Amino acid sequence: MRCKSKLEAYCTLGKLHDEIQQAIENHDLDAIEAVTSRTDALEQTLGPEYDRVIDGLDQIDLNTAEGQQLADVFKTLQDKCE
Questions:
Q1: Residue 64 neighbours by CB distance under 10 Å
Q2: N or C terminus: which one in the chain shows less Cβ crowding within 10 Å?
């Protein structure tokens, strides 16, 4: 898959995570289910590497040099989404 397609999937996924948070706050189970199915499809588009990175984020201390490097990578990606 081309990088542009993966970037588009990543950017859309970020927007959908915001929608899920809103649906959770509104206790809207139908919206949560609908958005979750869309996020699942996008995560498959991004591949297993995305899942491994996301799953490992809770093990990273953002106050370390390594954590700051990772935060910079995500910031660069996020900047490309806007």
A1: 10
A2: C
